[in-house]
Amino acid sequence: MAQIKLLKIAADGVPLEMDTAADEITLLSGQFGNVLASGNSIVSTDTDGNLILTPDGAGDLVLDGVNWPQADGSVNQVITTDGAGQLSWANNFANQVFNSYTADEAIAAVDALYISAADSVSKASAAGGGAASRLMGFALAGAIDTAPVDVVSEGVLTGFSGMTPGDRMFLSATAGAVTATRPTGTGNTIVMAGYAKSATDLHIHIEQLGRLA
Description:
- Helices cover 0% and strands 40% of the residues.
- By secondary structure, it is mainly beta.
- It folds into two domains: 1-70, no CATH class; 93-213.
- Strands 10-12-11-13-14 form a five-stranded mixed beta barrel. A three-stranded antiparallel sheet has the order 3-4-5, with no helix packed on it.
- A hairpin with a 2-residue loop joins strand 4 and strand 5 (41-44).
């Protein structure tokens, strides 16, 4: 790539090569083809012209520290965030019913939850028959301890893995998890969480089915 040398004019009229370490050029505006950069604006100057921003290779388009998806999603999908600066495409399940609580511990997306204190939730578990077995929904997204968390109690939720479509899913004895295997073991509670709509999507249908003797 060719290098452009800029000259400045000294007080006596003699041209001098600019010293980039000491001399700074401020361009109030500039036009490159049909793109005009002026002040805080970048404007297309041709009629109905598009502005196309294309990172190189696997580079991300980053706006205000947020990474946008590198490719288009599927029909009717929506943009979602992981809360850590990465946007992605997700299925738009308009039939979800969810409410906001406060995390009583660190929670991951799709963790099974129960109400552990006033307006607070923790990971649910089928081990035993106490409050922790009273599954009431799933985390829409992850949250750190004491942070807000949305809990989905009806509808279809995506983000699971390894499920077989059509399987009944139960609350697991492992805190926060669901399983296709009906819990066994004395004292464990059987809680149906819903049906596997696909390998990743759970149709939530919560039923308390009793405690094992």
